[in-house]
TrEMBL record:
Domain DYW positions: 867-960
Keyword Iron attributed: no
Entry-linked Gene3D superfamilies: Tetratricopeptide repeat domain
SUPFAM superfamilies, per database record: TPR-like (SSF48452)
Keywords for the protein's UniProt record, in alphabetical order: Repeat
GO molecular function: RNA binding; zinc ion binding
PPR repeats: 117-147, 148-182, 249-283, 350-384, 551-585, 652-686
Name of this chain's protein: Putative tetratricopeptide-like helical domain, DYW domain protein
Annotated organism of origin: Helianthus annuus (Common sunflower)
Length: 960
């Protein structure tokens, strides 16, 4: 309704402008302006009007020749008749807004030299006021020899009718000063003026005057008072006045209803309604429309439905006018289906109603229907306005059809809205969301007026952009004097997150605090996400503690973020906090927390979460299933991972990838390849991650030719460009097969420059095959790329040691210490009875160290009896052989193993140990022997892979 009103006003203004301009232009300009400014000081003697007419060409219409004026000039009786005729003519012109015709009548009056009676003076004032020529009306008024309350009221009502409330009040004061007393029409008009400019103070003074003058019982004055109080939000006063009015008057009741509806007081709207019905006052369609308008603005669906019911009862439901209000009400209350039901019955809905309907569908996420409705509207021949276009463009952003978006853009041009900020903002978003950032940027650049929404729309385009364009845009927003809002901050923080720029992120955080937005849930979530992704978990936790309210999305960001930042314990901690808060996790929260369990390799906590997943009914969700498979796999329980995988009904790419990669990690290459073939027959498209798994599987199975075939199929068949990880897998395949020449030429032909990963892989192959010459060259490269990494020195010295090149071993060791590189201490951990126990190499701090030592000695005795000889070449320290043996026997994984063997749940068939570094050759040999002596399976996950030790051999076939 409001829209409709605005449109009418606009239409009126537009059609008037040329007329008004003509009038204005015909005045001598400078004179006119000074007159306008001093309008209240107009001189009564100044006969501007006659001089004005002398400059306008007037051709009297043919009908005028028969006018009584010419025939019966002179007689007094005829004078009266003439005066009446002029008045009537001016009234017609005023009603129809025939400015030119009215001006000619005025000229005739001047020409005829007739003496004007007060009625004609008022008619003239009324005519000019109604035609919007307020200053001329004022001039006529000033020429009046005697001004009474009627002429004053005509002038005031002219100004008020044109929306100049303040001017109306000013004129009223002027009237007062002249000692003219108002009548009931004057008071009703001035009350309306107060209402227009919401001048409640003056209105209250008038109220007093109304009572004093005894006009309170007048219907117009009474309803004007009610309207004033209602519009100014003084509903108590409004209701009191309304109830005191002697006669029930529908107009004042409507005002009151509207006031309550606008204030969202549905209880009182309904109460008033009931009273109106009791008084048998006529509930016309305008009453209903008034209330519907209120219901729409306050989103009061309940009251809206009651009005709809009344419309049906009163039989006015089928009135187009009322139906349009119903559509508007249901749309604004978000009830698309109800709105559609009414809408479909309309014979010819106007543009406002079409727009309301399209906007509602768009906001309810029914974009396809919005688009269909829009094309129906277009084929009905209606011109869209900027609101229709903004809604349909917003709908298009979810449709993902760039061609359709372009069509709408053309439409915007065609109908002349290409310069409307509202439409352009929607267009920027639609292009960016549908994958054409450049088009969105082009629109932004050509806009003549940009608001904060325009900037925010552009900023959202940099969300997933790793460059710092988003941050630059943020700076520009500040430079252009805009005050960022929460959308600005969310987008900027997301930019910081994707470019991993936590330094700038911290500065943005400072701004957020300045604007006191840091306790806002949405901004807080963006901040948390930025901090956890940059691994600043402590900063993220500070925000969590400051938030007023934490919703599921925030919890999920915290929980998944901690897991990603390798803070598994914290991830699980916040999951428990969330449960205490009574917030139910969704599939993303669960998957996030499962990743936390994987990160700390806690199969115990993982299992607890697994049973929660089953209870909560999320077990078939592919996202959760992938996280479960991943968790069991990473915790060394490949069998459990397999069981979960097989129980899930539909497998997506991520789930296939997870199981394939886990099989490869656990040396079950055949199963990985079988899965891959299965995946293809089920038409699930593989991606880059699939090939990492499948190439690792080929490498471990030494299926060099098959590996090459898969590698080439990536580009030839699946259009997946290989990444450095894929190249490293190929180097591993060739290196493991001892094909060093081929590996080297492969590296030379790579489209990406080789990095540390490639050289480390090749160095590993050199160690296994004892390739001293190449190993030395590769190690040199690595010493330059990453001089601080200890494992490269150790690997090279192992290569020398295996070939008895002790001088070279010493040289590498010297190099290592001269570079200040320290060997990272070995660290292993094992979960026993749900508790994780951590052991450092040579650690003596464990509570049960004596029992562990005893177990170590017992095992060593058994192993020596089956032929175990410690291989001291793996000890790089310059100490005696006995000491070297002692050091070896206290490597962290052995301490963890012995602790597990002496613990209560040692009846487990499998011991699973996790280690931060690669397992050394001596421990590898030791574990193989232990697995046969103690009749237990031992699983060790080292820095690179899983080793399954069983009955004297390892799944890696001694290649790692
Ligand atoms: Zn070891
Ligand atoms: Zn192994």
């Amino acid at each position: 309704m409001e829209l409709l009103h605005c449109q009418h006003l606009n239409m009126r203004r537009r059609s008037q402008t040329p007329l008004t301009n003509l009038l204005f232009n015909s005045f001598p300009k400078s004179h006119f302006i000074s007159q306008f400014i001093n309008s209240h000081k107009f001189s009564k003697k100044n006969s501007l009007i006659s001089s004005y007419f002398s400059s306008v060409q007037i051709n009297p219409p043919a009908a005028e020749s028969n006018s009584p004026i010419r025939k019966k000039n002179g007689s007094k009786r005829w004078d009266k008749e003439k005066l009446r005729w002029f008045s009537g003519k001016l009234r017609d012109c005023a009603e129809n807004r025939f400015l030119e015709e009215g001006k000619m009548v005025h000229k005739e009056i001047v020409d005829s030299g007739i003496e004007l009676d007060s009625h004609l003076w008022v008619s003239l004032i009324n005519f000019y006021a109604k035609c919007g020529c307020l200053s001329v009306a004022r001039q006529v008024f000033d020429e009046m020899p005697q001004r009474d309350v009627v002429s004053w009221t005509a002038l005031i009502s002219g100004f008020v009718g044109e929306g100049s409330g303040a001017e109306g009040i000013r004129l009223f004061c002027e009237m007062h000063e002249e000692g003219v007393n108002p009548n009931e029409f004057t008071l009703a008009t001035v009350l309306k003026a107060c209402c227009l400019c919401l001048n409640l103070e003056f209105g209250k003074q008038l109220h007093g005057e109304v009572v004093k003058a005894g006009f309170f019982s007048d219907g117009h004055v009474g309803s004007a008072l009610v309207d004033l109080y209602a519009k100014c939000g003084e509903l108590e006063y409004a209701e009191k006045v309304c109830l005191c009015l002697p006669k029930e008057n529908a107009v004042s009741w409507n005002s009151l209803l509207n006031g309550f509806a606008l204030a969202g007081d549905d209880q009182r709207v309904l109460r008033l309604f009931c009273r109106m019905k009791e008084t048998e006052m006529k509930l016309n369609k305008y009453t209903l429309c008034t209330v519907l308008k209120g219901c729409a603005s306050s989103g009061n669906l309940k009251a809206g439905r009651i009005v709809h019911g009344m419309a049906i009862v009163s039989g006015s439901e089928d009135e187009e006018f009322l139906s349009c209000s119903l559509v508007d009400m249901y749309s604004k209350c978000g009830r698309a289906d109800d709105a559609l039901k009414v809408f479909r019955k309309l014979k010819s809905p106007d543009i406002v109603t079409w727009s309301a309907m399209i906007c509602c569908l768009e906001q309810q996420g029914r974009e396809q229907e919005a688009a269909e409705l829009f094309s129906m509207m277009m084929s009905s021949g209606l011109r869209p306005n900027q609101f229709t276009l903004t809604s349909i463009v917003s709908a298009a952003k979810e449709l993902g059809d760039l061609r359709y978006s372009r069509c709408l853009h053309a439409c915007v041009h065609k109908y002349g809205f290409a310069d409307e900020t509202l439409v352009n903002n929607a267009l920027i978003t639609v292009y960016i969301k549908n994958g054409s950032f450049d088009d969105g940027y082009k629109i932004f650049n050509t806009m003549s007026h940009r608001d904060l929404v325009s900037w925010n729309s552009l900023l959202a385009g940099f969300h997933d952009n790793k460059s710092s364009d988003g941050l630059r845009t943020f700076k520009k927003i500040l430079e252009n004097g805009f005050k960022p809002n929460m959308f600005t901050y969310i987008s900027t923080l997301r930019s910081c997150t994707s470019s991993l720029n936590s330094e700038v992120g911290k500065q943005v955080h400072g701004q957020v605090i300045k604007q006191s937005l840091d306790s806002d849930c949405y901004v807080g979530t963006a901040l948390i996400d930025m901090y956890v992704k940059s691994k600043c978990v402590n900063d993220a936790e500070k925000i969590v503690n400051r938030l007023n309210e934490i919703d599921l999305f925030t919890w999920t960001a915290v929980i998944s973020g901690c897991a990603q930042a390798d803070e598994g314990e914290k991830s699980i901690f916040y999951f428990k906090q969330m449960q205490k808060d009574g917030v139910k996790p969704n599939e993303f929260t669960l998957a996030g927390c499962l990743r936390g369990c994987s990160a700390i390799t806690s199969v115990n906590k993982g299992k607890q979460l697994h049973s929660f997943v089953i209870k909560d009914g999320h077990v078939d969700d592919p996202f959760v299933a992938s996280a479960l498979v991943d968790m069991y796999g990473k915790c060394g329980c490949i069998k459990d991972a397999e069981t979960i995988f097989e129980a899930v009904e539909s497998h997506d790419t991520v789930l296939w990838n997870t199981i394939i990669n886990q099989y490869a990690q656990h040396d079950q290459g055949e199963k990985a390849i079988k899965c891959f073939e299965n995946m293809l027959t089920k038409n699930v498209p593989p991606d880059g991650v699939t090939f990492i798994g499948i190439l690792s599987a080929c490498s471990r199975l030494r299926l060099t030719e098959l590996g090459k075939k898969y590698f080439h199929s990536m580009t030839d068949v699946y259009n997946i460009p290989p990444t450095i990880e894929h190249y490293a897998c190929m180097v591993d395949i060739l290196g493991r097969d001892g094909k060093f020449n081929e590996a080297e030429s492969f590296i030379n032909q790579m489209t990406l420059p080789p990095n540390n990963l490639i050289w480390e892989t090749l160095l590993g192959a050199c160690k296994v095959h004892g390739n001293v010459e190449l190993g030395q060259r590769v190690a040199e490269k690595l010493f330059q790329i990453e001089p601080e990494v200890d494992s490269n020195y150790i690997m090279l010295s192992n290569i020398f040691a295996a070939n008895g090149m002790w001088d070279d071993v010493a040289r590498v060791r010297a190099l290592m210490s001269s570079q200040g590189v320290k060997k990272e201490p070995g660290c292993s951990w094992v979960e026993v009875n749900g508790q994780t126990h951590v052991f450092l190499s040579q650690d003596t701090s464990h509570l049960r160290i004596l029992e562990i030592d005893e177990k170590l000695r017992e095992l060593e005795r058994k192993l020596v009896s089956v032929g175990y000889v410690p291989d001291t070449e793996y000890v790089l320290r310059n100490v005696s052989d006995v000491e070297k043996r002692e050091i070896l026997s206290h490597h962290s994984e052995r301490l963890a193993l012995c602790f597990s063997l002496i613990s209560k749940d040692s009846n487990n068939k499998t011991v699973t140990i996790f280690k931060n570094l690669r397992i050394c050759g001596d421990c590898h040999n030791y574990m193989k022997l232990v697995s046969s002596v103690v009749n237990k399976d031992i699983v060790i996950r080292d820095a690179k892979r899983f080793h399954h030790f069983k009955e004297g051999s390892c799944s890696c076939q001694d290649y790692w």
